[in-house]
Amino acid sequence: MVLAIVFFLLVFLDQITKAAAFALVGVDEPVRYWLGKMFGFDTLINKGMSFGIGADQPWALPLFIALTSLAIVVMLFFVLRLRPKHRFLRTSLVLIMAGAAGNLIDRIVLGGVRDLIYMDFGFTCFSNNIADIVIFFGAICFILALLFIDEDALFRLGKNRKKEKEQLEEAAHSLVESAKSEEEENDPSKNG
Question: What distance in Å separates the CA atoms of residue 143 and residue 148, rounded to the nearest whole number?
Answer without folding.
Answer: 8
